[in-house]
Structure formats: structure tokens, C-alpha cells
Design goal:
Helix content: over 70%
Largest sheet: none
Distance between the termini: 89 Å
Number of strands: 0
Number of helices: 15
Shape: extended
Mean pLDDT: 83
Radius of gyration: 31 Å
């Protein structure tokens, strides 16, 4: 019977250097005529995508370098901006102007459909149908009806809102004292944002009146912002520009209180869940947190302020000359009922969520650009502050 294990002689023959099994084989020279082609050359789409990625990365790096240069130049020109100085409030005011003016103007097509559906829910079945009808009847320009008063009004509002919020937050904090300001910080956020919005809406109201009328009359009652102001003041006097002020306060003050207080709270909660302190993260992470916190805050804002938003649209479109404010609201509410106050809520949640996140992203990006810290993330308790 054959042995179960190989003998010593067999093992030596197999594993010796002269064995055919262990002798290294000479590699054939590289075949220069090989048919192998890299995927990037074999597939044109692959090549185009890879090329686009490389170019995008190069452009992104170049853009970051240029942005850093511009930021350094701006900071060198303005000098060191101390917190709560006049320069600080000026920077916050300009950041708010850009944040609100740019974002509200960009979503004018959404706002146009929202206002028209609030005034007449049967006018359009959906947003795309509305844009299609408007585009066919009035062209692309018609889809952006009201962009002029939107840009003017919300730029002014944003300037007073964000600049005012920073001012009143510091003002009320000093009044309350360091310990009380920290313990009751949410109340401080609410008071500061309400005070700022009270003033900001006075700047917004005339332009809001023109915007709503332009968007809810077909064809628009005026061709431009200032011609619209002239038409309204010619028929109703200056008071005609401010007849929607009370409902505007009713819409915007709760909206802004929710916007700032919830944003500060959400951002603080986000940083509490992250492994490092806010100050240890870079600019990109901090602005990303601002964007995320802004979107979540925007959803809450839209729900809280929507009934008043519907009423503002109705009053600006349907309030009769000389009609009392209370009488006009009662008449409109009888016509639309409680359910009518929620017309257009879904589109407004999408619009306001996007708006609020972009606004906080732009605002905090500008603050970083000017060498200032981003908003949100509560200060440490007073005892820790004193030891810093």
C-alpha cells in the first residue's frame, strides 16, 4: 500500500532550487501591443466626468484662495472689528441686508404663486401649472412679477432685523446682567428679535403693499416699484402704504421671534451633540451648522406666521378705502373661514425653510468673511466666562 505521507526524497525533489515547481519563471517582456485600454480612455463619458471633477476641484481651490484674499483685504481695510462696536453693528446690518434681499428676490416666483393662491385658491391647481400659465401669458418676466419691491423691501427689512437683533440682544443682556442673561437667554432672544422686527416692518410695509398688489392684480396695477408707490399714494395717500402694517406685525413679529430664538436654541443643541467646542471647528463646519439650524427654524417660522401671512395678502388685495382694520379682518375671515387661513401652507414651509437656511448661511458667511464669529452656540455660564 502506498504511504500516506510523502517521503523525504520526494519533498527534497519538490522544494529544491532545481525543482520545476519552485524555479522562478522568466517574465515575458511587456507587450507594447497590449489591447488593454484604461477606462478613462475606453469610455468617453468616464473621461469627461473625471476631467470635470479635476477641473471643479481646481476651480474650488482657486475660489477659496481668492475668497481668503478678499476676506483678508476687507479685514485689513476695516481694521480689527471689536464685538458690539459701531463697526460690528454696521457689518451685521449689511450682512442682514444681503441675506434677506438676495434670498427673497430669488424666490419671487414661489411668492407670486403663493400670494395668488391665497387670494383665490381656485386660480391654480398647483405651482407648475401656475408657472406654466403665467409664462405662456406674460413670459419669464411675468414669473418674476414683484421682484422690484421685494428686493427693496426685504433688503431694508433684513438690515434692520439682523442689525437690530444684534443691538437689542446686547442691550437687553446688559440690562439684565450677566447671570440673568445666561439663565433666561431664550427670553432675551425673543425680546431682542421682537424689538428689531417692530422697526424693520415699518421699513418693509410700503414695499410689501406694492408687491402684493402687483402680484395679485392681473395685469399688475403698476409696472415698477416706484410707479406703484405713486399709484397707491395718489389714490389713498401715504396711509395706503401702511394699511397692512398691523397684520404685517402680526405675521412678522411671531415669525422673527421663532426664527431667532429657535435658531439659537437649535444651533446650541447641535454643538452640544458634537465632540468639540464650537470655537474648535473651522469656518466651513460653523456655516454648515448655521444652514442646518436655519432650515429647521424656518419650518417652525412658517407654521407660526402663516395665518397672518394669508391675512396680509387678503387685506392688501381686498381692503376697501376707508374700511376699518377690524371690520376688514372680520369680513375676510367670514369669507375664507379658519381653513382658508392655511391656504398655501405647504409651499410656504418649503419657501420659508429654504429662505431661512440661506439667510443664516449668507449672514454668518459674511460675518466670517469680516473676521467675526458666527451666530449661535450659547456663551458659557458667567463663572466660566470670568475665568477666561
Amino acid at each position: 500500500m502506498a504511504p500516506l505521507f510523502p517521503t523525504t526524497v520526494v519533498l527534497q525533489e519538490v522544494f529544491s532550487p532545481q525543482s520545476l515547481y519552485t524555479r522562478p519563471t522568466a517574465r515575458s517582456p511587456t507587450n507594447t501591443n497590449s489591447t488593454y485600454v484604461p477606462p478613462s480612455r475606453r469610455f468617453s463619458t468616464w473621461s469627461a466626468v473625471e476631467d470635470a471633477k479635476l477641473k471643479a476641484g481646481a476651480l474650488s481651490n482657486e475660489a477659496q484662495k481668492e475668497l481668503s484674499k478678499a476676506s483678508a483685504a476687507a479685514q485689513a481695510k476695516t481694521g480689527q472689528i471689536e464685538l458690539y462696536s459701531a463697526k460690528y453693528y454696521a457689518a451685521c446690518t449689511f450682512g442682514g441686508l444681503m441675506a434677506c434681499g438676495l434670498t427673497h428676490t430669488a424666490v419671487t416666483p414661489l411668492d407670486l404663486v403663493k400670494c395668488r393662491r391665497q387670494v383665490d385658491p381656485k386660480m391654480y391647481k398647483g405651482n407648475f401649472e401656475a408657472w406654466g400659465k403665467i409664462g405662456r401669458a406674460e413670459g419669464v418676466r411675468g414669473i418674476f412679477t414683484g421682484w422690484g419691491p421685494t428686493a427693496f423691501g426685504y433688503s431694508a427689512q433684513g438690515a434692520f432685523k439682523y442689525g437690530g437683533y444684534e443691538f437689542f440682544k446686547k442691550f437687553y443682556s446688559d440690562l439684565a446682567g450677566e447671570d440673568a442673561a445666561y439663565r433666561y437667554k431664550t427670553g432675551l432672544y425673543l425680546a431682542a428679535s421682537a424689538s428689531a422686527e417692530l422697526i424693520a416692518d415699518v421699513a418693509l410695509c410700503p414695499f410689501e403693499a406694492v408687491k402684493v398688489r402687483m402680484q395679485t392684480t392681473i395685469p399688475p396695477f403698476a409696472s415698477s416699484t416706484f410707479s406703484g408707490i405713486g399709484v397707491i399714494t395718489g389714490k389713498e395717500g401715504t396711509a395706503g402704504l401702511y394699511k397692512g402694517l398691523y397684520p404685517l406685525w402680526g405675521r412678522q413679529i411671531p415669525y422673527t421671534m421663532m426664527k431667532f430664538a429657535s435658531f439659537e436654541t437649535i444651533v446650541e443643541a447641535i454643538y452640544d451633540q458634537m465632540p468639540k467646542k464650537k470655537s474648535e471647528y473651522g469656518k466651513g463646519v460653523q456655516t454648515g451648522v448655521s444652514f442646518a439650524g436655519g432650515y429647521l427654524a424656518g419650518i417652525l417660522c412658517a407654521i407660526v406666521s402663516h395665518p397672518a401671512d394669508v391675512m396680509v395678502s387678503k387685506l392688501n388685495a381686498n381692503r376697501q378705502p376707508g374700511e376699518a382694520f377690524g371690520g376688514a379682518m372680520s369680513r375676510i375671515y367670514k369669507d375664507i373661514g379658519f381653513g382658508g387661513l392655511w391656504n398655501g401652507l405647504v409651499i410656504r414651509i418649503f419657501m420659508i425653510g429654504t429662505l431661512t437656511s440661506l439667510q443664516w448661511g449668507i449672514y454668518d458667511s459674511f460675518k466670517v468673511f469680516m473676521g467675526l464669529p458666527t451666530t449661535g452656540g450659547a456663551a458659557p455660564p458667567p463663572k466660566q466666562t470670568a475665568n477666561l
